[in-house]
Amino acid sequence: MRAAFLYGAGDVRVDHVAEPTILEPTDAVVRIVRACVCGSDLHRYHDLPASGTGRPMGHELIGVVEEVGRDVATVRKGDFVISPFAISDNTCAFCRDGFQTACVNVHFFGAGDVGGAQAEAVRIPLADGTLVKPGITLEDADEAMLASLLTLSDVFLTGHHAAHMAGVAPGRTVTVIGDGAVGLSAVLASKRLGAERIVLMGRHRARTDLGVEFGATDVVAERGAEGVAAVLELTGGEGSHVVIEAVGHMPAYEQAYGVVRPGGSISRVGVPQYELAPVGWGSLFGKNAILSGGPAPVRAYIEEVLPDVLEGRIDPGRVFDRTLPLDDVAEGYRLMDSREALKVMLTV
Amino acid sequence: MRAAFLYGAGDVRVDHVAEPTILEPTDAVVRIVRACVCGSDLHRYHDLPASGTGRPMGHELIGVVEEVGRDVATVRKGDFVISPFAISDNTCAFCRDGFQTACVNVHFFGAGDVGGAQAEAVRIPLADGTLVKPGITLEDADEAMLASLLTLSDVFLTGHHAAHMAGVAPGRTVTVIGDGAVGLSAVLASKRLGAERIVLMGRHRARTDLGVEFGATDVVAERGAEGVAAVLELTGGEGSHVVIEAVGHMPAYEQAYGVVRPGGSISRVGVPQYELAPVGWGSLFGKNAILSGGPAPVRAYIEEVLPDVLEGRIDPGRVFDRTLPLDDVAEGYRLMDSREALKVMLTV
Question: What is this structure's pTM?
Answer without folding.
Answer: 0.96
